[in-house]
Amino acid sequence: MDVKEIFLEHNMRLTPEAEEYLKNLTIDEVKDIVLTLMEEKKVFVELDDLKKEEKEKITVIRSTFKEIEAREYSSNFKIHWERDITNKSRSKGKIEDFVENVRDKYKKLSSIVRTKMTTYQNVSFKKINGGGMESEKVRVIVIVSDKRTTQKGNLLLEVEDESDTGIIIISDKETKLFDEAQMISNDSVIGIEGSIFKNMVIAERIVWPDIPVNHKLEPLKENLSIMYISDTHIGSNLFLDKPFEKMIDWLKEGGEQASRVKYMCIAGDVVDGVGIYPGQEKELVVKDIYEQYDIFGKYMEQIPEYIEIFIIPGNHDAVRRAQPQPKIPKELINLNGRVHLLGDPAWVTIEKYLHLLYHGDALDSVIASLPGLDYKQPEKAMVELLKRRHLSPIYGTNPIVPETTDYLVIDEVPEVVCMGHLHKNGVSKYRNVFNINAGTFQLKTEYQAKFGHVPTPGIATLFNMDSLNISHVKFYEGEV
Ligand SMILES: [Fe+2]
Ligand SMILES: [Fe+2]
């Protein structure tokens, strides 16, 4: 959709100068401007209106901006333990647990889809299958069990809702819709609007759970930052100890940027672990898991004491492999109160920004299954998780424990999503949600080399809360 169409959709018209000016902005920035102008009830938008918006934004930030050093500031965060699996796992892995898990996922995601406006009636497949609805316009909310191409080249979805199974057809003649439908995978919970033909729904529109377009993101008054790192893999012979120590020294020296860092998030794989894959032993310099955590703990102790540190586990850590994962036991990292061990996924509000921390195991399967995604841009795959409002949208590719509550549903809208696992830094802003892949401190492994993955080791990401921008600090310049 181009800039002009976005404005037209909201009953506003652009002068040619205004249209030209907007072409240089990102789609998210354009949407922010649309929302503000809608509040002002603008109909004709001129260049001056847009420039005024920008000026006001800068003045608001500058006039309320407070110079402050992180060490003088009391921390302000809340860990949402109710959304954390730690000490709550009840699953026995039985069929009933799987059924409950899928039911909970469907319930949560369908309620998100249901809030989206439609002029079509919501119906169940039980009603459709009962017949007598030929040509009626309907909306169904379904979970996809299978997707295939018919002999005529159309797309056929076998789906299920709470009442029954059903069939949805996406015609290859509807080019735009057909392309969008390529992004539907098994286990997606989506809404479909369309009309009934022989008890099937002929799709006209796909409704993803998605993030609301009007999600607000406000700057913080204090000039504080959050640092994100991931995948340190301590114990591996490829762990970059010198760059990691350089990062700690950078924080300790407290230069202009470093003195603003008040919080740190570490997105898992903190150690390389033991026995994670065949032949790992020859790649380990520290072969004892306790010693690996001991080294990690000693590093954490050196980080200035006023920085709150949030740590989740990854697939290399010493907790169960399947998700959701409980926190790393505190016996393994014996640390003081400002280090917070959380489960995977974890939800924590830092200042006023709700964070979703997730190691990212499901990114592999999302990249492998959906078109247009690759390992070079982890942030794009992260956006697909947000659109589906689920952290592991394709079932069966990475191990899941079927808890009766599906902890992997993204049922709240976060301001920041931070993941690791892919060892590749990347940032995107999608509908005012920052997606950060926090990279790694490990050089390229043999496994990554085999698949042609190029990691970006030794980079820390900073979220500067006063300016709402993201920056990177490099601690390693050598070859990967
Ligand atoms: Fe990793
Ligand atoms: Fe990992």
The CATH architecture of the largest domain can be given as 4-Layer Sandwich
Uncertain stretches of 5 or more adjacent residues: 58-63
How far the N terminus sits from the C terminus, by CA atoms, comes to: 39 Å
Helix content: 25-40%
Mean pLDDT: 92
**CATH class call of the largest domain:** Alpha Beta
Proportion of residues in extended strands: 15-25%
Question: Main beta sheet: strand number and arrangement?
Answer: 6 strands, mixed
Bound molecules: fe (ii) ion
CATH topology of the largest domain: Purple Acid Phosphatase, chain A, domain 2
What is the number of helical segments per DSSP (H or I, 4+ residues)?
Answer: 12
Structural class: alpha/beta
Q: Which secondary structure elements does this structure contain, and how are they paired or packed?
A:
Blueprint: H1 3-9, E1 13-14, H2 16-22, H3 27-39, E2 44-45, H4 47-64, E3 77-79, H5 95-114, E4 121-122, H6 125-129, E5 137-149, E6 155-160, E7 165-170, H7 175-181, E8 189-197, E9 200-207, E10 225-229, H8 241-253, E11 261-266, H9 289-302, E12 308-311, E13 339-341, E14 346-350, E15 353-357, H10 363-369, H11 378-388, E16 416-419, E17 425-430, E18 433-438, H12 446-450, E19 459-464, E20 469-474
Parallel strand pairs: 1-2, 4-5, 7-9, 10-11, 11-12, 12-13, 15-16, 16-18
Antiparallel strand pairs: 3-14, 5-6, 5-8, 6-7, 8-9, 10-19, 14-15, 17-18, 19-20
The site of one fe (ii) ion (FE2) has 7 residues, from loops.
